[in-house]
Amino acid sequence: MVKLGCSRFLLSCHVLLCLSAIWVLAMADVPAGQRPGCPAKCGDVDIPFPFGIGDKCALHSGFNLSCTNTSVDGVKKPLKGNFEVTKIILPEAKVRMNTRAISSQCYDPAARSMNYINFGLNLTDSPFWISEVDNKIIVIGCNTLAYMTSSTYVIGCRSTCKNVTLENGKCSGAGCCQADVPKGIQYYHGYFNENYNTSTWPDNPCSYVTLMEKAAFSFNTSYVRSNSSVFDETSNGVVPIVLDWKIDAHACEEAKNTSSYACVSSNSVCVNATTIEPGYLCNCSDGYRGNPYITDGCQDINECLENANACGNGICENTPGNHTCSCNPGSSMVNDVCVEKPSRFPVMPVVGASVGVVVFVVALACACMIQERRKLQKMKRDYFRQHGGLILFDEMRSKQGIAFKIFTEEELQQATNRFSEQQVLGQGGYGTVYKGILKGDVEVAVKRCKTIDEQQKKEFGKEMLILSQVNHRNIVKLLGCCLEVEVPMLVYEFVPNGTLFQLIHGNHGMRISLATRLGIAHESADAIAYLHSSASTPILHGDIKSPNILLDMDHQAKVSDFGASILAPTDKSQFITLVHGTCGYLDPEYMQTNLLTDKSDVYSFGVVLLELLTAKLPFNFNPDVPAHEKSLSMMFMYAMKENKLDQILDVEIKDGDNTEIIEEIAELAMRCLEMCGDNRPSMKEVAEKLDSLRKVMQHPWVQRNPEEMECLLGEPSSMASSAITSAEYFSIEKKAVNDLQSGR
Ligand SMILES: *[C@@H]1O[C@H](CO)[C@@H](O)[C@H](O)[C@H]1NC(C)=O
Ligand SMILES: *[C@@H]1O[C@H](CO)[C@@H](O)[C@H](O)[C@H]1NC(C)=O
Ligand SMILES: *[C@@H]1O[C@H](CO)[C@@H](O)[C@H](O)[C@H]1NC(C)=O
Ligand SMILES: *[C@@H]1O[C@H](CO)[C@@H](O)[C@H](O)[C@H]1NC(C)=O
Ligand SMILES: *[C@@H]1O[C@H](CO)[C@@H](O)[C@H](O)[C@H]1NC(C)=O
Ligand SMILES: *[C@@H]1O[C@H](CO)[C@@H](O)[C@H](O)[C@H]1NC(C)=O
Ligand SMILES: *[C@@H]1O[C@H](CO)[C@@H](O)[C@H](O)[C@H]1NC(C)=O
Ligand SMILES: *[C@@H]1O[C@H](CO)[C@@H](O)[C@H](O)[C@H]1NC(C)=O
Ligand SMILES: *[C@@H]1O[C@H](CO)[C@@H](O)[C@H](O)[C@H]1NC(C)=O
Ligand SMILES: *[C@@H]1O[C@H](CO)[C@@H](O)[C@H](O)[C@H]1NC(C)=O
Ligand SMILES: *[C@@H]1O[C@H](CO)[C@@H](O)[C@H](O)[C@H]1NC(C)=O
């Protein structure tokens, strides 16, 4: 009985909430503000200030639009440059535009060649950037590896039609794939990997890559099942994209000091833009709505009118920016509900009944709240179970002394200041890493992934257990995880000194000696070799790259990010994943077979070695660079073939007596980058080789003391008596070290 009543009550609550939400939405269309004499609309599109059409109508030239009729029907359209603006959303600071930035690759059977059209979008020097929450990189095709490059990123995915079922509305590798847009970019260009082409798919010769509003895209199998360019045609060659804007390049605190400060309305607030570089925009304060960019643009919201339920059964009174609730004389407020005061006169049966009703309602409300809380807890429990939390718990109980903690959501929220922007350490297609401080001032890094696939979900607890047992001084320690959320979060030890990527490519003006580089290379190789040979289950890293090698004080390397790591599969047939990794580091064999092996890690590590040697980026984003210089590995192979290694070496390590060491590292890198995985050395071999080179470096012959030399070479007397050149010495010493190593 009570249960039924409760669910009814809930239902009516929801209906009321829904109704009031509709009401708010309907009211939200406050007329947009303009400067005097400026048009409010162009065609069907509202043009609120800071945007404007015509002289002195926009805040600055970045927001200046033109209004022209481009179609035969005579409807005018607002244009920003060549792009049609379809909607300006002031409170969210977003603008929706149509772009023609679809890159395509079509096979021409007559000419037996591929025709490429590479498009891009360049918003540099404009106040706009590409919203990472509203857009996606979309790739359509049957044998396509396409990617977008930006000033600092290469992100892409691969789609195939071989042995997969294409489904309308599904874009996860079969005929269509998608990738997340990095944060804060203003420029992108779409490309295709030429090794993937549709020459063997005569029935669907075209592939596409574009960056567009994700809500506007739905995959239709006809996009790849037809020989014509259906995708291009259905979209008329234009795709919508959502952009964020900022007023200028000042953060709020600075902007307030400038004469051009744009948040001029009373009751407006300044909001820091979410770009990487500083910037600000304006919003109306809570309780106000309208245009913060014009005087008195922010108007009070009358909550009492808009939300009939604002005060429940009480009396609502609107105030500037808020409202107050009160009760009729004779009743008082108890937990936001007006309750009749007990009368001093003999209690009339009617009053008694009404009090009874009120008490009943209060009791119901409480019951509902408890129910809601139970529901939330149940949800958390469900997620926990789904992610294999119970298995993990059991294991942890049976194996005492596992230093691994299961965190609650609240704990992590507290540690990261509610996942505040200020705590962000890094960000990428996979998700976001936050810096956190646990109770007791323990610094940690909290990784919050964007998505997890169903298969991974079930295995999560088990994987955690295995990863938690990984214990190597050059591997970032996994301290725990949080399973009671939809996508589990991982908690790692905090490594203070940035990444290898930042060390190599950063602008810190520091010279990095060859010894330091070799040390980092050796320690990382050692860590990866440890993972590969891990006693219980070998672990593949799957995404070795310089941004994933963190540095401690003294440049001690710590390999991180097992987000992509996969326990080595026992059943190979089951193991087909979509290519996941980072362009420039991806093993070409993996791209062809879709099979991740320990040799894929070796390949990626080879690229890291090249970065250490050349200080060049693994992938060149510049569209003008010829194809063979785009990827560092190709450029390196070319240089080695032409015997021009020293032309691509980093100048910081070029000079000096280290030519032999450098050549050895280059040779090692070359073996790591062999096309065929079987020909690459194992990670263990790589680590040993680097270790021996490191030892050679640590013992420069000029500073040698006799005992040490004896240990290495056995025959110090002959050395002392005969005059040998440094190069000769070097080669002997190297051989000796190698012999020592292999003798063990
Ligand atoms: C805005 O653009 C129009 C032409 O489209 C130009 O005449 C006008 O000067 C521009 N205004 C500003 C402030 O840049
Ligand atoms: C503009 O609209 C008129 C009809 O109002 C039409 O005749 C003309 O062709 C249009 N201009 C363009 C460039 O399409
Ligand atoms: C502006 O305020 C509204 C309501 O408080 C909020 O929904 C919106 O996200 C805010 N916009 C920005 C850019 O912070
Ligand atoms: C398609 O790619 C293959 C390699 O995967 C290559 O041999 C072939 O020449 C390419 N075809 C065209 C037309 O580019
Ligand atoms: C983008 O445009 C800016 C100028 O607006 C230019 O300096 C830059 O080179 C362009 N970037 C690319 C990659 O074309
Ligand atoms: C694809 O399917 C065909 C027949 O259905 C099969 O012979 C072939 O081995 C499959 N290829 C792969 C890579 O699974
Ligand atoms: C897919 O496209 C075809 C023709 O292009 C269309 O008839 C069909 O309705 C579309 N299907 C969906 C689910 O959008
Ligand atoms: C596509 O296929 C149809 C028949 O299925 C054919 O008539 C047409 O010429 C083809 N178009 C191209 C561009 O190959
Ligand atoms: C703003 O200006 C005042 C005085 O003009 C100055 O004291 C203050 O430091 C400035 N603040 C910032 C953030 O530049
Ligand atoms: C805005 O960003 C600056 C740094 O870019 C920071 O110092 C300031 O605290 C931020 N302000 C707000 C209101 O978040
Ligand atoms: C409105 O008033 C209530 C109660 O005084 C307060 O809790 C709330 O924060 C206020 N809201 C705004 C937007 O000022």
Automatic annotation (TrEMBL):
<keyword id="KW-1133">Transmembrane helix</keyword>
<dbReference type="Pfam" id="PF13947">
    <property type="entry name" value="GUB_WAK_bind"/>
</dbReference>
<keyword id="KW-0547">Nucleotide-binding</keyword>
<feature type="binding site">
    <location>
        <position position="447"/>
    </location>
    <ligand>
        <name>ATP</name>
    </ligand>
</feature>
<protein>
    <recommendedName>
        <fullName>Protein kinase domain-containing protein</fullName>
    </recommendedName>
</protein>
<dbReference type="InterPro" id="IPR017441">
    <property type="entry name" value="Protein_kinase_ATP_BS"/>
</dbReference>
<dbReference type="InterPro" id="IPR045274">
    <property type="entry name" value="WAK-like"/>
</dbReference>
<dbReference type="InterPro" id="IPR011009">
    <property type="entry name" value="Kinase-like_dom_sf"/>
</dbReference>
<dbReference type="GO" id="GO:0005524">
    <property type="term" value="F:ATP binding"/>
</dbReference>
<keyword id="KW-0418">Kinase</keyword>
<feature type="domain" description="Protein kinase">
    <location>
        <begin position="419"/>
        <end position="702"/>
    </location>
</feature>
<feature type="transmembrane region" description="Helical">
    <location>
        <begin position="347"/>
        <end position="370"/>
    </location>
</feature>
<keyword id="KW-0325">Glycoprotein</keyword>
<keyword id="KW-0245">EGF-like domain</keyword>
<dbReference type="GO" id="GO:0007166">
    <property type="term" value="P:cell surface receptor signaling pathway"/>
</dbReference>
<dbReference type="InterPro" id="IPR008271">
    <property type="entry name" value="Ser/Thr_kinase_AS"/>
</dbReference>
<keyword id="KW-0812">Transmembrane</keyword>
<dbReference type="InterPro" id="IPR000719">
    <property type="entry name" value="Prot_kinase_dom"/>
</dbReference>
<keyword id="KW-0808">Transferase</keyword>
<keyword id="KW-0472">Membrane</keyword>
<dbReference type="InterPro" id="IPR025287">
    <property type="entry name" value="WAK_GUB"/>
</dbReference>
<dbReference type="InterPro" id="IPR000742">
    <property type="entry name" value="EGF"/>
</dbReference>
<dbReference type="Pfam" id="PF00069">
    <property type="entry name" value="Pkinase"/>
</dbReference>
<dbReference type="GO" id="GO:0030247">
    <property type="term" value="F:polysaccharide binding"/>
</dbReference>
<dbReference type="GO" id="GO:0005886">
    <property type="term" value="C:plasma membrane"/>
</dbReference>
<dbReference type="GO" id="GO:0005509">
    <property type="term" value="F:calcium ion binding"/>
</dbReference>
<keyword id="KW-0732">Signal</keyword>
<feature type="domain" description="EGF-like">
    <location>
        <begin position="300"/>
        <end position="339"/>
    </location>
</feature>
<dbReference type="InterPro" id="IPR001881">
    <property type="entry name" value="EGF-like_Ca-bd_dom"/>
</dbReference>
<feature type="signal peptide">
    <location>
        <begin position="1"/>
        <end position="28"/>
    </location>
</feature>
<dbReference type="GO" id="GO:0004672">
    <property type="term" value="F:protein kinase activity"/>
</dbReference>
<keyword id="KW-0067">ATP-binding</keyword>
<keyword id="KW-1015">Disulfide bond</keyword>
